[in-house]
Each structure stands twice: as structure tokens, then as C-alpha cells.
Amino acid sequence: MTTPIPPCRACQTPLSTTLVDLGLQPVANDYRDSAGREQEPRFPLVVRVCPACLLVQADHSIPADALFRSDYAYFSSYSSSWVEHARIYAEAMIERFGLGPNSLVVEVASNDGYLLQHFKARGVPVHGIEPTANTAAVAVTKGIPTDVDFFSRGKAHRAVASGNRADLMTANNVLAHVPDIVDFVGGFQILLKPEGVATFEFPHLLNLMEFNQFDTIYHEHYSYLSLVAVETIVRGVGLRVFDVAKLPTHGGSLRLFVCQAAAKHTEAAAVQAVRDSERQAGLHSVDGYAGFDAKCQDVRAAFLTFLGQAKAEGKTIAAYGAAAKGNTFLNYCGITANHLSCVADLSSAKQGKLLPGSGVPIVTPGNLMSRRPDYVVVLPWNLIDEISEQLVGIRAWGGKFVTAIPGLKVF
Known about the structure:
The protein is an alpha/beta fold. Helices cover 32% and strands 21% of the residues.
């Protein structure tokens, strides 16, 4: 029986080109205790490229409400560097766009209020939209009005009907998380004021391709984004990109500045510069995506070789960071608790549970330090500086850090 070719999420063109096949994977943020492991489902994790609009996307059909549940495990505020990133953003947007007490800032996927709290502290009215009830509840305790809901054109129409229009809308690392990306972006066109601005931050597909960042692929990410693909979607709903900034976050991200098609914001030279860099890398043609699967296999082989050698030498190995990207990587490599003794994480919502698929127990950082491992594999490699400072004490017994992406590094 032939498996049907799925249609593109944005333009419905058949997806006949595969970027990478990461095998059967559990839902990356579905942390469980030992009693729930037997119910742990796995789903194919295959990423394809649309030959028409060039949107890179996962071809699964897991509904968003099955992924972003009321007991969602990711709280943005547990990363101090991410909270500081949000503070710097808020200060810059207030200054650049003259935001004040008569403005409205709306964040889509506002999580626990990690970002809107900075606008609120400056006297700028804010409103959050967040589908996971437990993180939204934390935001409300900070005095941030938050709707527990998914964002869409329908949600935007309801907000406008209640008298709200936004001067600034922000969506950090959420654009990739929506199954209907056209409906989602279309909501911004509805809710933005005529001269309002929306910013979208997302890991840049160009870096994913160049630096083997396949661990950023998991079921919660329906799309993997380039400027060329996002501009096509944005134009289709009556918006346009007028500026872009390159960011170091998440292994290299873009922040797009978007406005109404008829707004007065002039296009910055940075937009064309990113267009040119993507074209040079081959992202404007489906042929430019060939060979990525083989690069992922090479990363896996190098990590498994390292583990085998370390075990043969009698070394103990732990990990740090129970992040979704780490779960993709570990399951792709076939890692279990026989390979890693534990993984430490600051989040109390994860401690005491097991990593999805691999079953590695999640402990406190103090517990990890008490075990005195010879190697600590840092799974959220994008936070290596922050984490190596937190665990600087491992050097007391000669412990070393390990990262596997973009290539194996022991230091």
C-alpha cells in the first residue's frame, strides 16, 4: 500500500521531497513518571520541503491541543538568559516605536509572562494569549491579563470586537508551532493597528541546515522557517516584512518586523541582505535541501562512538537540560538510561519524571553534582555558556562538558 503524499500546510502543493527522516519519536515535551511509560506513543518525525512555496514542514497530523496541554512542562522564565533577552527586546521596542501608557502590546504564546512583565514595568498596557493553562496562570499572578486560547483569525476578530487593536504584537518561537500557519499569521493582520508592528522570532532554517541543528525538529514544530517562505505567507495575508535582525538565540534566529501592506514603514537594507544569503545557500530551490539527512546520520554516529569509548573506559556520563531538542537528539540516537545515568534540569515541573522515549530520570542540578560524573552532555547546546557557569564545580573532579551539535565537542 502506497503512503499518500501529504499536502503543504501553506499552499496545498504535494510534498514529494524529504529533508530528513528522524524515525519514530515520542512527543518531545511529554514527560512521564514510570507508571505512565507503557502508554507513551511514538509518531513518525519526517520533515519535507514544499517545491512551490519552499515551506519546510513536518508531515504529521498531531493536533495542537494534544501537544500544548494544560500541564505543559516548558516555562520560559527558567532560563535567565532568555528573560534577559526579553527585557532587552522590550526596552528596544518601547524606544523605537514610542510605546507608552496609551499603547497596547499583545504577545501570542506569552507563556508565564517572561516578556510582557518588562513592558508592564514600564507602564505599557499588555495582554497575553497563551494556550497552556498552567503557564498562563503564572503570568496572571504577575498581573498580566492572559487569555487561555490558541491564536487565529477567529481569535483576532473577537479581540477587535471587544475594542482592542495592537500597537505591537510579538510572537517569539511560536510561528513554527502552529499547524495552520496561514490562519495564524492572518490573525496579526486583523489585530494590528494600521501603523502597528508585529515581530516574529524563530530559529533560522539557514542555520539549521548549515550547522546540523536537527534536534530543533520535533512534533511541536510544524514548520522550519526561512525568510523566503515566511515572506510568501506574510504577503498572502496583506502584510509585509520591513526589517529583519539576526539574533544569536537558539543557535541563530531571525526577528522579522512586519506591518500592514499599506503602512508607512520603509524596508530596511537588512531584508534584502537576508534574502541574498538564503539564495546563496540554495534555499530558493528545492535542490538546495539535498544531503541534509546524511549530515544528521554523521552527527549520530560520532556521538555513539564517543559514548561507546567512554563506557569502555569506565567513565560515568550524565546530561544537563531536559529540553525538547535534547529529546529529539537522544531518541534519534537510540539513547536509554543505560547510556546516561540522569539528566539535570532547573524546572521543578520536570524533576522526578523521565525523559520521553529514552526514560532517563530527571534530577535536580544538585543531585547531578553529587554524582560527580566524568562527562556532562549539555543537550540545550545553545545555552552552553549559561549552563557551564551553573555547573562550574564539575571541574573540581576533572569533569568535562560535551556537546554533539553541530559536531562532537568535549571541553
